[in-house]
Write a structure and sequence with these properties.
This protein is mainly β. Helices cover 13% and strands 38% of the residues. The strands form six sheets. It has a five-stranded antiparallel beta sheet with strand order 4-5-6-7-25, with no helix packed on it. A four-stranded antiparallel beta sheet has the order 3-2-1-24, with no helix packed on it. It has a four-stranded antiparallel beta sheet with strand order 8-9-10-11, with helices on one face.
Amino acid sequence: MEVELLKNLPPEIVIEILSRLPIRTIKISKRVRNSWRDLIRSREFADSHLSKSVQGMVFCSEFNNYEVFAFEDGLDLEDPYRHYEGLTSFDCSYLCISICEIQGSVNGLLFLNPLSSISSEYYVFNPLTREYIEFPYEQRLLDEDFNGKVNYGFGVSKVSGQYKVVKTVHVKKSICHVYTLGTGKWRRIPAGPKLGENTNSSGAFLNGCLHWFVEDYKNRNLISCFDLETEAFSTFSHPPLSLYKRYQVIVALDNYLCICDNTDELVIAFWVMKEYGNEKSWTKEFVIRKRHPHCYGQPRGIVYPIKLFDDGHVLMTWEDEFNAFSEMYYYSNKTKTTAELDDCKVFGVSSGGSPMQAVPYTPSFVSLRSFPNEYVKSYKWF
């Protein structure tokens, strides 16, 4: 009866209804009617669903295995039996892809950077649609990679809606190239200032712009901002922080530009730019005390916030500065304590003492086939 009712509704109403369903139900709906399948594959559906999508997480272990999780509600860790099922997964090794590192996550698309020196491709994935594209280095870029510091960024322009990969290489000077999805080529543009290490300055995307710390001896209190629409660099000041950036990271958190500072031995400070672009609006939004015995009294590397929940709880990864591996931690705003998370028990995944990444991810049905001049590949398994 319900199916027959939807059959007679206008497409825009059906799209609105389907886009409000849980993702697993949407996947099932594609197999119910061909007309629904076609609507779910449309750009109109992708846009409608994305406007309602809630930020989750993608977890990567050993640079190969990727698992996507959605958080429709708070992360209920007080329930000892709470377990989150992954939405989908993929393994790069089965796709004959080199080991990769996630360098950006925007509107359901992941930008992956190969770590192997013999690889000649970058990748953009959508785990939900099970599509990916690969686009090569140009030889001149490859030569520069081996001789200088490289920074990446991935985002979408605010007006034209173009998805762009930004790559900055610093040898004796900064050199910047942009790859716009759908064009099939790199372009060189005027570069901005020298950027900080990519581990803590990885092109945080917010408000149509990418953000990095500036690594210039005379301007070490600045953030570099790249407008993806105008393709121009600018700078603005960050809050009063230690000039030693080893334990600081700049991210987009809860729709704000945020700096997570783990320099202090006793606390982790979260600085938030309350009004984007206003340097005077930097506020120390909250502070987490290091009460867990494993982390008390030690900087222990970069703390990377994944999600700030409505109840004030924080999901984050914490790098071990001695081996560069990370573990997942959870701050409870209720108990005001920080504890290491049993990711195997809660999420069914585990780094097993191997390299691990976890980054924010907003599920979407944006199809890579909507970009011309790109060779889109698909994979069929989860």
